[in-house]
Hints:
The protein is α+β, with helices and mostly antiparallel strands and 206 residues long. The chain folds into two domains: 14-48, no CATH class; 90-203, Sandwich (Immunoglobulin-like). The protein has two helices and ten strands. It has helices at residues 62-90, 165-168, and strands at residues 20-24, 44-48, 93-100, 103-104, 109-116, 122-130, 133-142, 155-162, 174-183, 195-203. Strands 4-10-9-6-7 form a five-stranded mixed β-sheet, with no helix packed on it. It is rod-shaped and about 100 Å long. The model is unreliable at 8-24 (pLDDT under 50).
Amino acid sequence: MSPFGLPVNLSAGTAGVPACLLIFEVPCGKDGQAGTPAVPAANLTVVRSASMFETEPIPEARPIAILKKVFVMLVVALLAIGAVSSYRADVQVRSVELNANRELATNSNIGVSVVTSGRTQVDVQVELLQGSRSQKLFTFHVPGNELGFFDPRPQHASRSTVLTKDQLAGFEPGAATLRATAIGRHQWMWLPPPTKSEVGVEIRLE
């Protein structure tokens, strides 16, 4: 209730600050004293004022919004690349294939083809086994990609050799095994098991 007998509803704003201010236009007498307290509704003016603690939201600058989107895209891309790279570090050798005739003799050709993930370097060894006898025929290295973590391209390599009489010395005519073994490098503090390919052959001595 106002001093002039008018109903007044003041809604409390933030921290007790009134949400609005009431301005009364009160007629005064000749001697400067307040006149009749009955104030017509037409002379009652309500002025809306915002709380001192209310602030207008500041719109985000367009360059900052663009930078945020670019940053999120980079993080997602790096996570995807990291997941693929981790798989390539676990599966370093994709395939090992031996190519040789069923019968091995002096001047027989032996070849091997290897496909790796390109994550790191891979060592390949080809040997001939018969019972407790083992003879290393040749070895070679398959290089990894220059940027092994980011570059997902596989590496292909092939090598071949011709059996010599000295390599077959000490073997007996009969069944034997030709084996190719490919092994990678330690990645994430773990070395994957070697990948092997074997072919049954018959040794023929002249």
